[in-house]
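## Example record

The block below lists the input lines for one assembly entry, exactly as stored, with component labels intact.
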Amino acid sequence: MNAVFSTTYEIDNKYSTKYHERFVKFLKYVQENDLVVDGAMTDPKGDRGKSPSAQDDPDLYLHVVERREDGIVVRGAKAHQTGATNSHEILVMPTVSMKPEDKDYSISFAVPTDAPGIVMIIGRQSCDTRKLEDSPLDVGNLRYGGMEALIVFDDVFIPNERIFMDGETEFSGMLVERFAGYHRQSYACKTGVGDVLIGAAAVAADYNGVPKASHIKDKLIEMNHLNETIWSSALACSYSGWKTQSGNYMCDLLLANVCKQNVTRFPYEISRLAQDIAGGMMVTTPSEKDLRSEEVGKYVEKYLKGVSDVPTEDRIRIMRLIENLCLGTAAVGYLTESMHGAGSPQAQRIMIARQSNMEEKKRFAKHIAMIKKA
Amino acid sequence: MNAVFSTTYEIDNKYSTKYHERFVKFLKYVQENDLVVDGAMTDPKGDRGKSPSAQDDPDLYLHVVERREDGIVVRGAKAHQTGATNSHEILVMPTVSMKPEDKDYSISFAVPTDAPGIVMIIGRQSCDTRKLEDSPLDVGNLRYGGMEALIVFDDVFIPNERIFMDGETEFSGMLVERFAGYHRQSYACKTGVGDVLIGAAAVAADYNGVPKASHIKDKLIEMNHLNETIWSSALACSYSGWKTQSGNYMCDLLLANVCKQNVTRFPYEISRLAQDIAGGMMVTTPSEKDLRSEEVGKYVEKYLKGVSDVPTEDRIRIMRLIENLCLGTAAVGYLTESMHGAGSPQAQRIMIARQSNMEEKKRFAKHIAMIKKA
Amino acid sequence: MNAVFSTTYEIDNKYSTKYHERFVKFLKYVQENDLVVDGAMTDPKGDRGKSPSAQDDPDLYLHVVERREDGIVVRGAKAHQTGATNSHEILVMPTVSMKPEDKDYSISFAVPTDAPGIVMIIGRQSCDTRKLEDSPLDVGNLRYGGMEALIVFDDVFIPNERIFMDGETEFSGMLVERFAGYHRQSYACKTGVGDVLIGAAAVAADYNGVPKASHIKDKLIEMNHLNETIWSSALACSYSGWKTQSGNYMCDLLLANVCKQNVTRFPYEISRLAQDIAGGMMVTTPSEKDLRSEEVGKYVEKYLKGVSDVPTEDRIRIMRLIENLCLGTAAVGYLTESMHGAGSPQAQRIMIARQSNMEEKKRFAKHIAMIKKA
Amino acid sequence: MNAVFSTTYEIDNKYSTKYHERFVKFLKYVQENDLVVDGAMTDPKGDRGKSPSAQDDPDLYLHVVERREDGIVVRGAKAHQTGATNSHEILVMPTVSMKPEDKDYSISFAVPTDAPGIVMIIGRQSCDTRKLEDSPLDVGNLRYGGMEALIVFDDVFIPNERIFMDGETEFSGMLVERFAGYHRQSYACKTGVGDVLIGAAAVAADYNGVPKASHIKDKLIEMNHLNETIWSSALACSYSGWKTQSGNYMCDLLLANVCKQNVTRFPYEISRLAQDIAGGMMVTTPSEKDLRSEEVGKYVEKYLKGVSDVPTEDRIRIMRLIENLCLGTAAVGYLTESMHGAGSPQAQRIMIARQSNMEEKKRFAKHIAMIKKA
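Predicted C-alpha cells for the full assembly:
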C-alpha cells in the first residue's frame, strides 16, 4: 500500500492525474472496513527472455484489453499469491520496469477478489493432503498454514475510481522498486518462523537426551546467530527510513535488499542444522495410524522413545513439526518462498548494485592510494 | 559385508572362533542365490546420553535375551533401514563401540527378513501419499523411490551358523568403524542424484527462457563443482584402499569420512541453488487435476506456459521433479538421509579427528618454527 | 566509558561507594580537555585453562599488589592495546567475570599514559618496516595506520579518586559484558574499511580492463552485501538500545554480539574476493625502487600497464593498497583484529547463547506441536 | 612438460612438423643434466578486455618479432613466475586460446634463464625485508620460501631446435588446457602447507592452554576436513587419468579444475580458523629486538608467557610462523597464489562448465520426469 501511496503522489505531481486521491479513498475504505488486501505483483512472465509486449501470448503479463468511458477491462494473471484466498481485495501492480511500448501493461488498480472474471487456482504444497487424512499428528503443524493462488483475470472490468496508474511507464520502475523494498523488509517474518524451528530443534535435542553435547549447543547458537542477522537488516532498514514526497516513509532500499538476500540463504542453513539436530527420525517416523494400531502401535511406542520422562507421542510431535518446517507445507513458505518471494535473489543483487554508491567507494580508495586521476 | 568379512577374520585370529568361516558360507549363499542383504546397524538408542546397558528399557539397543544350544534369541530394533522391505536377508551389526558391560549387545548375525518375530514398520515420507492419488504428474518422480523401515526383532531366534560376533566387545568398534567407512564411501551415490537435480535445474532454466543468463550459468557451475567435490572424495578414498588381514580391501577411512561430511553439506546447497533456478512455480503449481479440469485447465495451460515451443505439461513435469528432490519423497534421501545416513555429521568429525595424525602436523610446525621442545 | 558509567552507578547503589561520582569527575576532565582515552581490558592471561588467581605467575592478570591510605599499587599488563600510544589516559577494566577468590583482580581505574611505572612495547605488524624504507609507493596506505601496544604496569600507583571498582567481584561480569557490548557494536568501523577495499577492488577491475565482466560485477555485489550485513547489525543494536539505571543507554547485547560475530567472518571473505578481483599482480609487483630504476624501470612501466589511459604507477598504487588491506599493516586491523578485537568469536557465541531466550522458543515450538508437557 | 609432450605429438600428426622430436630431445637433456625448468605461461595481458593482437602495445603478450633461417626472435614478458630465479631453463607456452590473427603469439619454446635479452625482476612480498633484518625470530619461517619474477624477453633469440609450436593457433587451446590441468592438479601442494598451518594452530592451542576446549578441537577438525577435501580432488583427478595419443597420461580435467577451485576457497578459511585459534598475539607480538632488549626484554618474556612449561620464545616462534603463513611471505603462496596460480577462479569455472556434460544430465532429468521432447 505504501508504495502505491507514494508513487501515485509523484505521478500526480507530474501529470496532474488524480491517482493519489483515488488511492487514499480506497485506503480509507479498506481501513474503515478492516479489509485484507493482497498486493499482487508477479505476472506469469512466460518466456523470461522476452519483454511483456514481446511474448507470443500477450496475456502472459496482465494488460488492458479494452477501454471504456467508465473504466478498463484487463486480462492476464498474477502468480504465487500467498494469502489471496483469504483477502477481500486485490491491489494489482506491474511486475517489472516498463518501456514505452509496454504502455498497456503499466497498470495498477484495486478490485474485489470476487469480481466477475476473477478465478483463483490453488497450488499444491508438499504434504498438503496430510491435512485431509484423519491423522492430525502427521500434519506436524495444526495451528498455522497458508497457500498460494494463481489469480486469473479473465476480462475483468475495473472502474475508473479504482485505477491508480494507467500507462505512465516511467513510474512502473519506481512502483516496483518501492513495493519490493517494503516487501523485502517484511521478510523479517521469517525470523519468527526461524524462532519456532530453533525452539523445535532444541526440544528435539532435549528429547533425544543430548541437550548438553557441545556440538548441539554450538549448532543452536549458529541458528540463532543467522536468524538474528536477518532480523538485524530488517530492523536497520526500517529505522533508516526516509520521508517520501507524499509524506509516508520508505525503508532504506539498500538494507531492505540486503535483508531479503540473507533470507534467500540463512533459512536453508537453519533448516539444515535443524535436521542435523533432530536426527533421522524426522523422516522415518511411522504414521499416526501405525502409532494407534493395535498390532504394531506397541512397537512404535516402545522403540521411538527418547528420554524416559517424555512420552513417545510428544517426541513424534516435535519431529513432525520439524518435518513440516523443513520438508512439508511450511517449508514452502520457510524455504522456497524465502528464495523467491518479493523477488528472486538476482533481483536483490541488481538493487544492491544500484544502491551501493560505487563511485564514492572508488574515490575513497583513490584518495588513500594517492591516485590523482578521477 | 566387507566390514564383517574382515572383522570376523581378526576376531577368529584372536579367539579361535569360527565366525569368518560361517560368514564366508553365508556370503556364498547370498551370491549364489543373488540375494539382497540389508546391512542393519542403527539401534533406536533411546536416551542418547546413556550407554546400551544403562537405558531404562534394555531393548533400545538390540541384544541377546536367551542363549540356547543351537543359537540365540534376540530382542530390539534397527531403525531407519532404507531398502529393508526389498531385501531377502538382514545382516545385523552393533551400532556403537561397546564396553565390557555391554557384552550382550555386541552381537552380529544374519537372518531372513521373513523370520518369525521380525516386524517391519514403514516410515512416512514427505508427499508419500501422492503416489496413491490418481495424479501421476504430481508425483514428480514416477520411476524411482525407496522407503525406510523400523525393523523390530520381537524375540527372534538366530541359529549358531548365522552368528558372526557374540560378546567380543573390543571388536565392536572395529566393525562399526569399518562398516561406517564403507558406507560413507558409498555416499558417492548422492552425486548421481545430484546429476539429476542439476540436469533438472538446467531444463527448468531452458523452459523459463533464461539458459544464458550469467547468474544461471554460474549457479549451474557451482552445483557441478560441489557435486564433483563429493565425487572426488568418494573416488579418492576408494583408490587409496588398503588390504586387511582377511585379504579384502578397506577404503581410506579419513577420506571416506571427509566424503560423507561433505555429503552432509553440499546436497543442501545444490538443492538451494536448484530452487533458485527453478523459480517459485516449483511450489505453487496447481495439481494435475486442475490441469486436466474442464473448468480451469485452460488457465493452467495458458498461464504456466514458459518458452513457446515447450508444452506447459513438460514444464510442470520438470517443476514436480525438482519439488520431489528438494521437498518431496526423494528429498528424504537426498537431504535428511545425506545428513544422517551412515552416521551423523558429528560421527564423521570424530573419525576425522582420530585419523588426522595431529602429532605429525605439530612436529612439522615445530620443525619449521625451529622449536626444539618435542 | 559508557560501561564504567553505568556499572559504577549500580555498584554504588549496592555498596554506597563513590565510584560513580569519581568517574563522572574523570569523565568531565576528559571532555573538558578533549583527551583520548584507551579502554584497556585484555590481560595477557597466561595459561587460559586457569583463572586469574590460579596462574603460576600472579601478574598475568593485572592486580593490586599494595594498598595505601591514598591509593593502590597495581602490577600486570594489558595486551593488544590499539591506539594506546596516542592516548592521554588509560581506563583499566577487568577482563573476565571474577570469582570471590579473584578480589584483587577486580579492579578498574584511570591513569595517565605517562605515569611512573607504565611501559609500552609496540607489536610488530606485517610489512611495518616498509614505512621506514624510502619507498612510499610500496607502503600502499600512506594516510592511515595504527599500532598495538603491550602496556606494562610495573607497580603503578593509582590515587583513590581514580579508582572505579575495587574488589566488587560480582560486578566484574556486568562491566565486561557492557564494555564488550559497546565495543562489539563499534566494530561497525570495519564496514568503513570494507568500503575502501570494495572501492579499491572496483578500481583494480577498471584498470585491468574488466569492469563489465559479469563475475566481477557479481563479486563486487557480494562484497557490498556482506559489508552491509555487518552494518545492519551495528545499526540495529544501536537503535534497539535501552536505558540503564544510571541514565545512559546500552546497545542491544544480542545484536551487538551478532554484529561482532559477523565481523569475525565477512571481512575475510571480502578480502578473499578483493584478491580474486585484483589478480596476482597484487603480490608480485616489483618494488618502487625497481619502478624508478634506470636499468629495469622501463620494463616495469611497460609490462605492468593495464588499460591504456591509466598510468602504470596508478595501477601499482591500487594494487599496493589492496595488498596493504589484505596482507599488510592494515590487514592486522581488518582481519586478525576483526577476529579477536572486543573478544574472540567464542566469546560472542557464549553471549548469543545467553541472550537468545531459548526457553521462549521451546515454548513456541511446543505450542504449535500441541505438546502439553512444559 | 607433459602438456607440451602430448600437444607437440598431436601437432606433428596434423602438420608433419618435428616439434615432438625436438621436445623429447630437450626433455632428455633436462633429465640427464637434472635441470629445473620453469613452465612459463602467464603474459602480462595489459587490457584484459582485448585479445593479444588488439592490445595498444603489441608486446603485452609475448610474440615473434623477427624470423631468421636458424630461429626466431621473441619479445614480451611472462609474469608471476614462481621459482624462475632458481630454474635453469624456461619453457614458454601461450597463455590463452588463440585466434588466426594471433599467429605470432602462438609460440612455445625453451630457453636458458641466462640467455641474452632475458631480464628477471623480482616482486615484493609481504614482510619480505624481515629476512634482511637481524631478527631471525621475526621471520617466522626460516627454512622455506620462494619468490615471483617478472621475466622480460627483450628480443631473445630462440634457435629452431628449441621451438615446439609456432603459429599453429588452433592447438594453443589444447596446450593451455592441458598445462592448466596438470598445474591445477599440482595445487595438491597447498595441502602440505595446510598441514603445517593446522599443526601450528594446534601447537598454539597447546601453548595457550586450551587444547581441550571443544570449539578449538572442532575448528581443528574443520581445518583438516577442508584440507583433505582439497587432497581428495587432487588424488581423484590423478587416479582418473587417461592416455593421450603421445602415450603419456593426462589427469581428469573436470576433477583437476574442481581441485583448484577448492584451492581458491579453503586455504582462506583454514587461515581464518588458524587466526581464530592463535589469538590476537599473532599480530601484536613485539619484535625479537624487544625480546632481547635489556630494558624491556623481561616484560616481553614475562607477559607473553602461555602455559608454564613452554618458554615464551617458543610461543613467539609459533605465533610468527602462523603470521608468516596468514599474512607474511608464505601467505603470498598459501593465499593469493592459491587464488590466481594456474589460472584465476573464473578460468576453472569455465572449464568446469565445459567438462560437465550438461546434455547428459538434462537427459537424465527428462527421462525421470517422463518428458519425451529431446
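The radius of gyration of chain A is 25 Å. The first helix of chain A runs from residue 2 to 15.
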